[in-house]
Design goal:
Number of domains: 4
Largest sheet: 6 strands, mixed
Radius of gyration: 28 Å
Distance between the termini: 70 Å
Number of helices: 14
Structural class: alpha+beta
Mean pLDDT: 85
Low-confidence stretches: 1-27, 162-172, 393-420
CATH topology of the largest domain: Aminopeptidase
CATH class of the largest domain: Alpha Beta
CATH architecture of the largest domain: 3-Layer(aba) Sandwich
Oligomer: single chain
CATH superfamily of the largest domain: Zn peptidases
Strand content: 15-25%
Length: about 600
């Protein structure tokens, strides 16, 4: 069935804080005014595949614990050759169970590309030269809880978990104390309480700052009973593994929901295997609550440990001490974008803001996430966007365009918003948009605590937009995703030359050219040796002898925006010998060959 977003009313079209301009695009074949469960998402993907069999292939990369398929759609024309060797972008969505907007944006992207082929020149050119791999819902088991357990926020893949370490799993979930069908928060007056009503927004609670003379009068708990009798409330709810915390980079060992070990889940392992075995993947885009597009990520230098050189090392006379130190130098794992890669992230972030009009910030705490793994381990340009979040301010969007363009004013405005707090901004937006996003505090009788008040934000209402905003948001992101895929490197061989040097000697040279924006490898990919170099080689031929220059040469990076790198050889052969020059760029176009005649 098609399902509307639980507990959320449709927003007025002119809601000031989230105005999204329409994008001219090819006609879409599906409806994007409702959220789709597993059955309907599967049907939509299969329908697209049936309608466009020449452009798409649909496969399952794994079967989940509950028997659902994790679908992957390959989009690309076979007219340009084998799609699996062309430069590709991998798009992944719905790692978090309740981030359903991500899967809808991914489905819309598939529809946008397939419907636009032949009717939009940019899309036609893209699918003739690039491939898009699309995983619209990595977490189908968890996503089904969005409908069956809509009274709570559940971001995980379902797995029993002993969060309170008492030897039992999932034995103290949240409970609906006041009977409104939701599990929110509860507050109870207590002289030992540390919370007080926020004087600026009485619906919100804040921790009292005793250094400012503030007095705590409430204790605040998740709504529910002490089901296991240990004196705690709802400390061991429905367990699960957060698929966006299950990856190696900065993996949080023993953290709740991180999984038993890195890449422990069927779904994350299947995605990792796919990424490792498809060496043509040149960029990654993730629809996730995290963000590095509305706000470009920070860069930082690597930290270095002291260099330890073995005392009995026999250093050859032609090896310098600098080379020895570089060999034995130890570096800590980077935790920020490398400085050499930062400008690429910054530029693409600027283009994202220009194309979507979105400004704001996503969720924090992405340690162990897939987007981090894609950059730090795979060495890919890796971008992530929540698809929907509050913009910087409602008044800024409706205000003077000159002020919007003034960086100083924007930064001051962002600072004021930060001070006000995201919760108050969400409340203001709900009020402004006519959306029921908050349950006012109402009295209830608790079996243990006695008289309490229950209230707080409605589960999932800050994760997914009202359903009538799906289409506009997804259209913006589809346009950006298509543009981003077109920026991946694609090398060509230009300016080949053969010069005779007499007595059967020939000088061969060729220039490898990259006219697209992104380089063939980011610095992170070079550093961790996951970015394959561009390889140029002369195939053996009868009577051919390479005098200088390795018969196979590697070019570590060919920069974008017209970057060039020249390879050359001195060979000896009989006049008229036919030589084949091959250039292999696994992430930038696959294998290309040029015929050369030695004359």
């Amino acid at each position: 069935m098609r399902c509307h977003l639980p507990h959320v009313l449709a927003a007025p079209a002119a809601a000031a804080a989230l105005v999204i301009a329409a994008v001219p695009s090819a006609a879409q074949t599906g409806r994007y005014d409702e959220y789709l469960n597993y059955e309907d998402l599967t049907g939509a993907l299969q329908a697209l595949n049936r309608t466009h069999p020449d452009l798409s292939a649909l496969e399952s990369i794994c079967t989940t614990d509950e028997g659902r398929q994790v679908w992957l759609m390959r989009i690309g024309s076979t007219r340009g050759g084998n799609p699996d060797i062309r430069p590709a972008m991998l798009v992944v969505a719905n790692l978090e169970a309740n981030h359903i907007i991500g899967s809808m944006a991914a489905l819309y992207l598939a529809d946008y590309l397939l419907s636009g082929y032949r009717s939009a020149d940019e899309i036609t050119d893209l699918l003739n030269s690039r491939t898009i791999y699309l995983v619209p819902r990595l977490n189908p088991d968890g996503a089904e809880r969005f409908w069956t357990m809509s009274q709570i926020e559940f971001a995980y893949k379902p797995n029993p978990e002993d969060e309170d370490r008492d030897g039992a799993s999932d034995e103290d979930p949240g409970d609906d104390i006041n009977g409104d069908g939701l599990v929110t928060m509860m507050r109870v007056r207590d002289p030992e309480g540390t919370y007080m009503v926020d004087p600026d927004e009485p619906r919100l609670m804040k921790e009292a700052d005793r250094t400012k003379g503030e007095r705590g009068v409430y204790k605040v708990y998740p709504e529910g009973r002490d089901d296991d009798g240990d004196g705690e409330f709802n400390e061991d709810g429905p367990g699960g593994t957060h698929l966006n915390m299950n990856w190696p980079h900065q993996y949080r060992h023993y953290a709740d929901h991180a999984g038993t070990n890195q890449v422990s889940e069927i779904e994350t392992r299947a995605l990792a295997d796919f990424a490792f075995t498809h060496r043509n993947i040149a960029a990654a885009l993730t629809f996730s609550p995290y963000d590095n597009l509305m706000s470009a990520p920070q860069t930082g230098a690597e930290r270095e440990a002291p260099v330890r050189i073995p005392a009995d090392l026999d250093i050859p006379p032609d090896v310098s001490m600098e080379e020895v130190m570089e060999y034995f130098r130890e570096r800590s794992a980077p935790s920020t974008i490398l400085p050499q890669d930062g400008p690429y992230f910054g530029y693409i972030s600027e283009r994202f803001v220009e194309m979507t009009g979105l400004r704001g910030s996503g969720a924090g705490g992405e340690a162990g996430s897939w987007p981090q793994f894609a950059y730090y381990q795979l060495g890919l340009p890796s971008f992530t966007t929540p698809v929907w979040t509050l913009t910087e301010t409602a008044s800024t969007e409706a205000g003077d365009s000159g002020e919007r363009s003034n960086q100083r004013a924007r930064m001051a405005n962002r600072s004021r918003q930060s001070a006000a707090g995201d919760d108050s901004r969400w409340l203001a937006w709900f009020d402004e948009s006519g959306i029921r996003g908050f349950v006012d505090w109402t009295p209830a009788n608790h079996p243990t605590l006695g008289e309490v008040e229950v209230g707080g934000f409605i589960p999932n209402v800050r994760v997914n937009p009202p359903a009538d905003q799906i289409s506009e948001l997804a259209a913006k992101h589809a346009e950006f995703a298509a543009w981003l895929a077109a920026q991946t490197a694609a090398v060509t061989v230009v300016d080949t030359g053969v010069e005779t040097r007499g007595n059967g000697f020939y000088h061969i040279n060729a220039t490898i050219h990259n006219d697209n924006y992104l380089p063939t490898a980011l610095n992170m990919g070079v550093r961790n040796r996951t970015a394959p170099p561009v390889v140029a080689r002369l195939l053996p031929a009868e009577g051919l002898r390479v005098v200088s220059g390795n018969i196979q040469q590697q070019v570590t990076v060919v920069n974008g925006s017209g970057g060039r790198s020249t390879v050359e050889w001195l060979v000896q052969a009989s006049p008229g010998t036919r030589v084949i020059l091959e250039v292999l760029a696994e992430r930038a176009g696959g294998l290309r060959s040029v015929n050369l005649n030695l004359r």
